[in-house]
């Protein structure tokens, strides 16, 4: 006794399998894009933080330079 499979069953299984693989592939692409967006956002935030830090360091350096000039003038005044 042999059981005859309906002729549509293998095709249905094949298409279901292809749909599953396509969905999995699509999910991977979406997840990769999500990770890339997150990485880009983190990179932009790091860049902004670095720029802020550099501006702060530049401001401090300017103030220190001005203070050194002021103290140098005071020393020169004491020497004369």
TrEMBL record:
Protein name: Myosin heavy chain, striated muscle-like protein
Source species of the chain: Tanacetum coccineum
């Amino acid at each position: 006794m042999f059981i005859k499979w309906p002729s549509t069953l293998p095709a249905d299984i094949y298409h279901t399998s292809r749909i599953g693989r396509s969905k999995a592939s699509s999910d991977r692409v979406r997840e990769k894009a999500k990770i890339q967006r997150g990485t880009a956002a983190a990179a932009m935030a790091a860049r902004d933080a670095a720029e802020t830090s550099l501006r702060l360091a530049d401001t401090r350096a300017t103030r220190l330079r001005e203070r050194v000039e002021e103290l140098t003038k005071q020393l020169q005044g004491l020497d004369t």
